[in-house]
Amino acid sequence: MKISPVGFALLGVISYLSYHAIAGNKGLSQWSRLQEQVKTLESQRDDLLLQQRQMALKIERLSEDSLDHDFLEELARQQLHFVHPGELMLEPPELTHQLPENEDLFALSNRG
């Protein structure tokens, strides 16, 4: 079977268009990559919206009109390391960035 020059040109055009429909800048493979990117960005957006809601709740709890004293104390203890007089605060070495000393922590906690 002999292919005419027109048939050969038509086969070339069809091959060219097929290739670009699948692998081109606007082809199926690019569409798949864009769909994955959309999923990733939507997930990031959802995480950021959750963080925003959590921050808004914390701000609400610290506002003058509805100050949550327990929450304020918890923040002071965690962020500023505040303790009540007479309390002993022990932090794990990984939080203090210091090497542990060979002290008997049981004896320290039962001192007083």
Question: Topology, please?
Answer:
Blueprint lengths: L4 H19 L4 H35 L6 H12 L12 H4 L8 H5 L3
What does this structure look like?
Helix content is 67%, strand content 0%. The longest helix is centred in the middle third of the chain and has 35 residues, at 28-62. The protein has one domain. With 112 residues, it is mainly α. 0% of the residues are buried. It contains 5 helices and no strands. The N and C termini lie far apart (103 Å).
Specify the number of helices: 5
For the largest beta-sheet, the strand count, sense and barrel status come to:
none
- The first-to-last residue Cα distance is 103 Å
- Overall outline: rod-shaped
Describe the structure concisely for a colleague:
The chain has 112 residues and is mainly α. The chain has five helices and no strands. It is rod-shaped and about 100 Å long.
Descriptive tags:
single chain; 112 residues; mainly alpha; 5 helices; 67% helix
